[in-house]
Amino acid sequence: MTHLTVAMRYLEGRAVASVLTAVSIALGVALVIATSLLSRGIKQSFVEGTTDYGLVVGAKGSPTQLVLNVVFRLASPTPNILFGTYETLRDDARVDVAVPVAMGDAFHGFRYVATTRDYFAAFPWRRKTFTVATGRLFRDDALDDPGYEAVVGADAARVAGLKVGDRFYEGEEMAEYPLTVVGILRATRSPDDAAIFFSVPSYWAMNEIARKMPQKPLTAVLVRAKKMSDLPALHRELNVSADTQAVFPSAILLTIFNLLGLADQVLRIVLAIVAVVVLLYVFLSMWSATLARRREIATMRALGASRVTILMLVLLESCAISFIGGAVGVVVGHAVAYVGAHLLAGRGFVTDPFAIGALQPAVFAGVVLLGVAAALVPAVLAYRTDVAEHLAPLS
Amino acid sequence: MPSGDTPAITVRGVTKSFPLGDGRTLPVLDVEHLTFAAGSCTVVKGRSGSGKTTLLNLIAGVSLPTTGAITVHDVNITALPEAERDRFRAQHVGYVFQTYNLLSAFSALENVMLAMMFAGAVPARDRRRRATDLLQRLGLGPRLSHKPHRLSRGEAQRVAIARALANDARVILADEPCASLDARTARDVLAEFLAVARDPGRTLIVVSHDDVMLESADHVLDMAMINRVPSSLPVVESVR
């Protein structure tokens, strides 16, 4: 029998209170772990998901909405621009690469993205690389000859159960225009994993309104300038135009991060309140346990336990329950993050719910220290228990 | 007043008063000189409030006298720092309480082992075996894993006796160990207590009014004869 055994026996002896205390600690820890993992994942998704292109050109409106929709597949699509805008930019001497993008409907929640093969090209300046896991990329169709070939992002293929050769469509009205899977992309840990790509002419053919339009529509054009010094001029010219706006994605990313930073601050306040509530709960639990146990404490003292031993037993008990609650909380936190990651994956965020780093040991050590701190006053109460007074026979 | 050639315990000029909280004190004990011979069995009797429990607590070093000194086996326990007094008590004094005072979260076996853990006198590897032997000698072999709420009063007091003997203490103090038991169980428990506790090297001081105990004792001590503070008539004096 050791001091830890004694502490554990006391925890078992008040099983309901111990379980409730451990659960409250576990919930607090789980909240910290899950929110930290998910918010870190969201930030990481924004960083990894951002485009390598210097400019995003779209219709007049909210620049944030344009980038969120075209780059991160969030928010509703902005109004259309004309295909001619793309052609002008493609032919502009200052432009290295221009990629048209048209955002369509979705299949099982996975967004349709109409583009060209350039979207996947491994240009030397690109951070992001696309490789096909199975099959091939879709063909760049002639403008009037849609091929309806689709390349599916890794998550979309896995969740929707699509494989090379499958024909699919969503909604009876689209039955005339089924897409055929010709390739599955390897995971890129970006919103592209949750997208379905095909050619722009296929998009025009599938879209009832676009079919009737003499000037074909696009959502945006991604632009890479030959020289960085040309970007400001391009940006200015496109914004002066009555129909288009040009946005620096990096500037929008900064805005998003500022917003996330604000959310982080609110989250920190919430977590601090949770920590205080848990601290109070542990304190009350240990305080009431010590009060109820003063006769037993006096007995232990009469048996020869020193004041320091009694103090240590109370601290050890609180430490043990914090340890158990903390360990359960870390596991539950990862489980919640796993569920949260699945929900976020549907919105194009790629988060790793099992990422292990400094967070887990820091939270775990923190909660054990908090548990010990919460038991300090009850421990001192136990330490100061008057033996003779509390040994008096019960009437 | 019990005495012998080799006193195991000496109480000299001991008084004990409790503060009343209003600047006054309540004296409960005033003993001029008292010795307990080594290996003797002394029964202490007296009216309620006569200072019996206070005397035991002072001898155990659970509380300190207001004045005077108590020597247990040549150690002036009243002069020891509290931590040393705790250690001394753990190793040399066994205490049997009137209401057993078993620790509710622990089994019978663990209650006995706990006393050994606090004293540290019995090696850790021997504690389980020694606790089991003691409990079996008291007829509690089938009750080793039972927690206090599953024990009868008689069984609980036997566990308390085993616990007091766990460290092979040279002094055993028992405060009305059978007051909570019916007459027949009390007789049986006392007989078993004496059978396992009486030893030439062990001094027993038992607060009791039981005939079995009175007949078995070497000495009977009446608190009315040794305590100069009359029971049930507290004398109140001001704190100086």
Question: Could you name the ranges of chain B where pLDDT drops below 50 across 5 or more consecutive residues?
Answer: 233-240
User: What's the total helix number of chain B?
Assistant: 8
In terms of quaternary structure, what is this? heterodimer
Shape summary of chain B: globular
**Main sheet summary of chain B:** 5 strands, antiparallel
What is the helix/strand order of chain A? HHEHEHEEEEHEEEHHEEHEHHHHHH
Q: Give the strand tally of chain A.
A: 12
Can you give the helix content of chain B as a percent range?
A: 25-40%
Question: Would you tell me the structural class of the helices and strands of chain A?
Answer: alpha+beta
CATH class of chain B: Alpha Beta
Radius of gyration of chain B: 18 Å
The helix count of chain A comes to 14
Summed up, what is this model?
The complex is a heterodimer of chains A (395) and B (240). With 395 residues, chain A is an alpha+beta fold.
Can you characterise this structure?
The complex is a heterodimer of chains A (395) and B (240). In chain A, β3 and β4 form a beta hairpin. By secondary structure, chain A is an alpha+beta fold. Chain A folds into two domains: 180 residues, no CATH class; 193 residues, no CATH class. The radius of gyration of chain A is 30 Å and the shape is elongated. Chain A is built from 14 helices and twelve strands. The model of chain A has no long low-confidence stretch (mean pLDDT 89). In chain A, strands 1, 3, 4, 5, 6, 7, 8, 9, 11 and 12 form a ten-stranded mixed beta sheet that branches. Chain B has one domain: Rossmann fold (3-Layer(aba) Sandwich). Chain B has a five-stranded antiparallel beta sheet with strand order 5-4-1-2-10, with helices on one face. In chain B, strands 6-7-8-3-9 form a five-stranded parallel beta sheet. Chains A and B meet through α1, α10, α11 and α14 of A and α1, α2 and α3 of B.
